[in-house]
Amino acid sequence: MAAITMKRAKGQFRVAGINEGMCTLDSYNRRDFYKISLMTEGSPCSLRYGSIPDIYVDKPALVLVNPIVPYKWTVPERIIPAEGYFCVFNDEFIRASAQLSGLMDRLFTTQESPVYFPDAVTQQFLNSLFIRMRADADMDYADKDELFRSHLSLIFHEAIKMRHTPDTAENGTPRVAAEFIRLLNHQFPVDMPLQPIALKKASDYADRIAVHVNHLNMAVQKATGKSTTMHISERLFAEAKSLLSYTEYTLADIAAGLGFEYQSYFNRFFKKYAGVTPSDYRKNFEKYK
Predict the structure, then answer these.
(1) What angle do CA 104, 105, 106 make, to 5 degrees?
(2) What pLDDT sits at residue 149?
(3) Tell me, what DSSP letter sits at residue 42?
(4) Mind listing the pLDDT tens digit for each residue in 104-133?
(5) If both were cysteines, with which of 12, 181, 228, 244 could 202 make a disulfide (CB 3.0 to 4.6 Å apart)?
(6) What is the 3-state secondary structure (H, E, C) of 2-40?
(7) 195 close to 253: Cβ distance less than 8 angstroms
(8) Which string of b and e fits 255-278 if b means at least 16 CB within 10 Å?
(9) pLDDT, tens digit, for every residue of 255-280?
(10) Domains of the chain
(11) In angstroms, rounded to a whole number, what is the distance separating the alpha carbons of residues 249 and 231?
(12) pLDDT of residue 185
């Protein structure tokens, strides 16, 4: 049997000043990146995040946004120029550290307000961390990513300390939605060699969480603004693109690994979201990525 060549997706991290390179707070909303912003100055603005009420921000704030939750910044009148820092990173960057991965899951999978208002001492400490990360970004250092992960760990701990709610598991709707997201994230990336994913549809997740599927669907829709089925489909599609782009597994193996009973079902699913068949996507990866 021929050996399988893997081309793994790389973790990505970027840090910059909010106004650096014309990259303002509301202009970097890549949906495949988590984002942390430290706003130190600026005109009052509001954040619409998922289904929770709009959050008014009129003082220094630390903001952690999850790419799976729809969000939008509104600045009625930009009188005071925005100042501060932000960093963005993808899932692969965080999952390289089990400890950091656990901290992120505590912060980014619960559908609370993503905005934290630090006191003066905490704000100064957070500002120093971002200044250091920005300086480290220009360094020629082999273990630079580990430096960034260390700084992120401190930022995550500060955010957890600023929470008004206990760190124990949530009850009711937020807890159910958070557990669904945790289980969904846990399934990806799929194991190598490919093993069929265990949870394929909303009812599978509901059975694992021990709630009725209707309650699960309601909780996820209310917390994230998207349906359970949409979350599952988006993750399957993202994983399919990764496997087609970075591995040499056959289409049949990928279809089976993602839980499709027949390859034809997988082909229809992929074309629905990509507009091209899996084989065409693989052949033209550089064009469609």
Answers:
(1) 90
(2) 93
(3) -
(4) 887 886 557 889 999 899 999 999 999 999
(5) 228
(6) CCCCCCCCCCCEEEEECCHHHCCHHHCCCCCCEEEEEEE
(7) no
(8) bbbbbbeebeebbebbeeebeeeb
(9) 999 999 899 999 999 999 999 999 99
(10) 13-162 (2.60.120.280), 172-288 (1.10.10.60)
(11) 24
(12) 84
Q: Are 190 and 241 in contact (CB under 8 A)?
A: no
Which tens digit of pLDDT belongs to each residue from 232-247?
A: 999 999 999 989 988 8
CB neighbours of 255 closer than 8 A, spacing ≥ 6? 262, 263, 265, 266, 267
HSE-up of 185 (CA within 13 Å, CB side)?
20
Task: Enter the tokens of residue 109.
Answer: 């999978």
Q: Which amino acid is at 133?
A: M
Token pair in block for residue 183: 């289980």
Read off the pLDDT of residues 54-90 as tens digits, 9 standing for 90 and up.
Answer: 788 888 999 998 888 888 888 877 677 889 999 999 8
Distances (CA, A) of 273 to 67, 132, 235: 18, 41, 12
Is 76 exposed, middle or buried (CB count within 10 Å of its CB: 0-12, 13-18, 19+)?
exposed
On whether the CB atoms of residues 46 and 73 are closer than 8 A, the answer is: yes
What is the pairing mode between strands 45-49 and 71-74?
antiparallel
| CB contact at 8 A, 7 and 247 | yes
Letter for the amino acid at 285? F
